[in-house]
Design goal:
heterodimer, A: 230 residues, alpha/beta, Rossmann fold, 6-stranded mixed β-sheet, 4-stranded antiparallel β-sheet, 35% helix, globular, B: 22 helices
């Protein structure tokens, strides 16, 4: 089913190595796959399999040491920082495992900030951010700082920050890993909504509920793809 | 055996930890070393340039002008010491508050409080001891190097040995203060419950709501920069306090130096006046010039028998000089040298009496003059002599300090007559051991009827022409004409050289300011590294992130600069009696100050670029 659509992500023989002291760690080894536009793909595998590294490379946060990566037709290899920043702003909505909200901005400001850097006028950005917070039931937390929020609340705010600019590709890293069952379910609902909207989503997860939502699951082990099932 | 190895490993663990946390250890040790090295350097250097730190040495307050040098240098040294201590406490509390989470982890896994405390105090002691020793050695070497460099530029500074009365105390202060502050922070961390210490809200801290909202028209960069500073209120306040003190130190050093230089030069210029010549018998004239010159050079002087009738000048000469067009003022004086005695003052109170002063004495130069004709203007406290004064005297600063406890309340005795004191003047003549009394009074108590010295102030426009006319008038009369402009210039040159030496202290305080700012920026960036990486991760360009940090640095620098500059100026003005300030002389200081601020901000860009350019993934995952 992926082959009938225009590929959103094309990874060809991607490899990534890290130098840790004297040791070279191979995080990704010859990884090749395609994700079509509108697809919901989950990436599963044990810890250290290379899931987060793969998402970072797709999101232009990290560069591969070998192979090539194309996202929406843009070759991300050997690009300068400015190009990658503009690319992330225009194409990517990233939900990090540890939420990564800006500690000195309130919930509202965190969401509005993402819109302002995409060119929204400040007042409109704040108005829209309020609307989004209301939609996820967190309008009462608008003026709270990240350190004053629970993990689930931070996760939901990280979601609406990632989605505020309506990016064509949403990358989500272990969204339920740090959450309890009930809060995790709320996150699963958000992802379900994205799938129904036809958004291209790649989620790194162990959560069976999310894997079941996926069109395909990319299974990884020790930096290699061991399966890409429908 | 097992017990021994166990205890060894416990001891070596803090050391291993210091080596493993290389960056944090280096930043902390480097900051502490710089702070102590600067303070030690200024203390060593202050000793070398000859102006001992009066309070610390318990030494006697030096006389006249050298007193001003000491005061300025003392204030600079105290401010440097304070800044050093404040910087150290700032860095220590920052470094140790980063470890609160580690304290939480250690207590959570079951380490007893004593062990945790011992572990962190060992780490702190090692860092403090290493940085104090390094700072001491570095400060000493810098001082030796500076003296050698200056001496190669024709200065003549003697290398002083280490002052064993001051340095151990300063060294101890630099050792004890950080340990006390660190112990407090560690002790406080130990009282926090492990669950709280480990929570994100504690480790990140809950930002404070900013009082001021930034209008949206200011742009995203400014808004984010301002909000970050306003919401990290404690860190911002500490940084502003620390930098303000450094800038105050720099301002005191720069402006104090400029004002003091200008003021002392002005004192000398007013005391001697430009275009003044002396007419007197050769012996008297030479004696006067010698006594005036000893302020800036050593002179062998011959005693003079002032009662010699050949020395007295005829009244008719004054009448003839008066008609010369270029002569602006004629100041006829009777000069003699005798001992001046202190008269103790007894104040009777209801149930007791208090004696002010003692019965000290000192040889001094006594000058009788007509107050309305005096060419000099050297008063620094009290009032000048006036026409109606009889047994009143104005004292040179050195004499006033040397033999009197309170010049405002005491009297002096000259030639068995008591004189009240109207004021004190700053006079280079006879190095300030001088007394001015009304001419008639001195004539009557000394039994002399005339005057033996005339000071003439000449119009600068036709100076040489007037001099020729005066020479014609005194020709063949056993009188000599001596110009004082040369002596004045020598004095001014001496003061300039002295102050140019003291100016080296501000230069080093500027370096302190630079290092302090750079250290602060490194800390500022390292604490914001995660936030900056997140901002980049969601699509902000590197240039914009750098702009955010630069704006923060500029806000901090400008606010601290304004506070420091104001405090520094206030201190400078209070340091000197009747400071002489001209916009023309202060303006370059301000320009220098702002140029340095800009330079420092640019200088601090290096750590910004180094940290901000770090890979986003690395920056996020490191913290």
């Amino acid at each position: 089913m992926g082959s009938s659509r225009e590929p959103a992500v094309v990874a060809s023989s991607v490899s990534k190595e890290f130098q840790l002291g004297d040791v070279i760690v191979k995080a990704l080894k010859d990884v090749s796959f395609q994700v079509a536009e509108g697809e919901f793909v989950s990436v599963s595998g044990p810890s250290g399999a290379g899931k987060t590294t793969l998402l970072n490379i797709i999101g232009g946060l990290d560069a591969p040491t070998g192979g090539s990566i194309r996202v929406f037709g843009h070759d991300l290899n050997a690009r300068d920082e400015d190009f990658l920043a503009t690319f992330r702003c225009a194409y990517i909505g990233f939900v990090f495992q540890s939420y990564n909200l800006i500690s000195t901005l309130t919930s509202l400001e965190n969401v509005a900030f993402a819109m302002e850097i995409a060119g929204w006028p400040a007042k409109r950005a704040v108005k829209k951010a309020r609307k989004l917070l209301k939609a996820i039931g967190l309008s009462h937390r608008a003026d709270h700082f990240p350190s004053q929020l629970s993990g689930g609340e931070q996760q939901r705010i990280a979601f609406i920050r990632a989605l505020a600019n309506d990016p064509p590709l949403v990358l989500v890293d272990e969204p339920t890993g740090n959450l309890d069952l009930k809060t995790g379910l709320e996150v699963v609902k958000i992802l379900e909504g994205l799938r129904e909207e036809g958004k291209t989503v790649i989620v790194a997860t162990h959560d069976q509920r999310i894997i079941e939502l996926s069109n395909r699951t990319l299974r990884m082990l020790d930096g290699r793809i061991v399966g890409f099932d429908e | 055996m097992e017990g021994l190895s166990d205890s060894m490993s416990k001891r070596s663990f803090p050391l291993k930890d210091l080596f493993r946390r290389r960056f944090q250890t280096t930043v902390t040790v480097a900051s502490l070393t710089i702070s102590s090295a600067t303070a030690f350097f200024l203390l060593f250097f202050g000793e070398n340039i000859g102006f001992t730190v009066t309070l610390l040495t318990g030494g006697k307050v030096t006389i006249g002008f050298s007193y001003m040098f000491s005061v300025i240098l003392l204030i600079i040294t105290l401010l440097t010491f304070l800044t050093g201590v404040l910087m150290i406490s700032f860095f220590i509390s920052l470094a140790m508050s980063e470890r609160i989470r580690d304290v939480g982890v250690m207590t959570a896994v079951g380490c007893v409080t004593d062990l945790v405390f011992g572990y962190f105090i060992t780490e702190l002691s090692v860092m403090v001891f290493v940085s104090s020793i390094t700072g001491f050695i570095l400060g000493w070497f810098l001082s030796i190097a500076s003296v050698n460099i200056l001496n190669s530029f024709r200065f003549a500074i003697t290398q002083q040995p280490i002052n064993v009365w001051i340095m151990p105390y300063v060294f101890l202060a630099f050792l004890i203060v950080p340990l006390l502050i660190g112990t407090r922070v560690i002790g406080k961390a130990l009282t926090i419950k492990p669950s709280k210490a480990l929570s994100t809200s504690f480790s990140q801290g809950i930002p404070a709501k900013s009082m001021v909202s930034v209008p949206s028209k200011f742009g995203l960069t400014f808004k984010v920069a301002f909000k970050t500073l306003a919401r990290r209120r404690i860190a911002t306040r500490q940084a502003i306090l620390c930098l303000s003190l450094v800038f105050a130190l720099t301002t005191v050093s720069l402006t104090g130096d400029t004002i003091a230089n200008q003021t002392t030069q002005n004192y000398v210029e007013r005391a001697i006046q430009r275009n003044v010549v002396v007419i007197a018998h050769t012996d008297i004239s030479r004696r006067y010039v010698d006594l005036l010159s000893i302020f800036s050079e050593t002179r062998e002087t011959e005693p003079v028998n002032y009662s010699d009738p050949r020395f007295f000048i005829a009244d008719s000469l004054i009448s003839r000089l008066r008609v010369i067009e270029g002569v602006r003022k004629i100041d006829a004086r009777l000069m003699l040298e005798t001992k001046v005695y202190e008269i103790p003052k007894i104040i009777i109170e209801p149930d007791r009496y208090v004696v002010i002063g003692d019965e000290r004495s000192s040889p001094a130069l006594i000058l009788g003059l007509e107050p309305e004709n005096a060419v000099n203007d050297w008063l620094i406290s009290g009032r000048s002599l006036n026409k109606t004064d009889m047994y009143s005297a104005m004292l040179g600063h050195t004499l006033a300090i040397g033999i009197l406890a309170n010049p405002e309340q005491q009297m002096i005795k000259i030639l068995n007559k008591d004189f009240g004191i109207t004021g004190v003047c700053q006079d280079p003549l006879n190095n300030g051991n001088v007394v001015y009394v009304p001419l008639e009074t001195l004539q009557s108590i000394s039994g002399q009827t005339g005057y033996n010295l005339i000071l003439l102030q000449i119009d600068s426009s036709n100076f040489s022409q007037t001099l020729d006319q005066i020479r014609e008038e005194i020709d063949g009369q056993d009188l000599e004409l001596a110009e004082l402009n040369g002596v004045l210039q020598k004095h001014l040159n001496l003061l300039n050289t002295g102050w140019s030496l003291v100016t080296l202290a501000p230069l080093f305080s500027l370096i302190t300011a630079g290092l302090c700012l750079s250290g602060y920026v490194t800390l500022l960036i390292s604490t914001q590294q995660r936030d900056l990486a997140i901002i980049r991760a969601i699509g902000v360009k590197l240039r914009a992130v750098i702009k955010i940090v630069v704006v923060q640095v500029l806000i901090i620098v400008l606010v601290s600069g304004a506070i420091g500059l104001s405090i520094g100026l206030l201190i400078s003005f209070f340091l000197l009696p009747e400071p002489v300030i001209s916009i023309a002389s202060i303006l370059p200081v301000f320009l220098w100050f702002f140029a340095v601020l800009v330079l420092l901000s640019v200088f601090s860009l290096y750590p910004i670029l180094r940290t901000v350019k770090k890979s986003v993934i690395k920056a996020i995952s490191e913290l």
